[in-house]
Specification:
Elements lengths: L1 E3 L8 E4 L2 E4 L1 H16 L3 E9 L2 E8 L19 H19 L20 H17 L9 H6 L9
Antiparallel strand pairs: 1-5, 2-3, 4-5
Helix pairs in contact: 1-2
Length: about 160
């Protein structure tokens, strides 16, 4: 899944030498992500990256609600991705707004992008995309320093 900051504001830190340097809000995002497993049963967290104005992460929703057989049927609640994202956004926005003393200020865009991973190859490609996302920031349209970065990159043949 991908979740963008409100108005794609650069809120979570900056990319320095192709590595994300999380600021205090980015650290809140990372901690809230990692804490999801303590609040939502039957999920596992896979790759995750937070860049200046969005995050990418893989959430594995475990299918533990199988038929009963000789055992009693499970009674635990299974959370849909939309509910997991809602909780993540709510918890992280509350903590970020407490830090910046701005209760009620939007932190996240209204929606999110989801992709269902269908096989091992898709999982591998999605993990690679997430892990390499900070490297691609140099050329990202959302990078506020993109024009300067592109101008001074190796092989650039544009005008000065």
């Amino acid at each position: 899944m991908t979740i963008c900051s409100h108005d794609r504001e650069h809120l979570f830190g900056e990319i320095v030498n192709e590595e994300m340097q999380l600021n205090e809000y980015g650290l809140i995002v990372q901690q809230t992500w990692q804490d999801l497993i303590h609040h939502i049963p039957n999920i596992e967290l896979d790759e995750f990256v937070c860049v200046p104005n969005h995050l990418h992460g893989i959430i594995v929703i475990l299918d533990t609600m199988v038929g009963a057989g000789s055992e009693p049927a499970p009674t635990g609640k299974r959370y849909e991705l939309s509910e997991i994202v809602r909780q993540f956004k709510t918890f992280s926005a509350k903590r970020i707004n407490e830090k910046r003393k701005s209760t009620g200020t939007p932190v996240w865009q209204r929606n999110y992008y989801e992709h269902i991973i269908r096989d091992d190859n898709d999982l591998h490609n999605t993990r690679e995309y997430i892990l390499n996302n900070p490297l691609k920031w140099f050329f990202d349209e959302e990078n506020l320093n993109r024009d300067r970065a592109v101008k001074y990159s190796v092989g650039y043949k544009g005008t000065k």
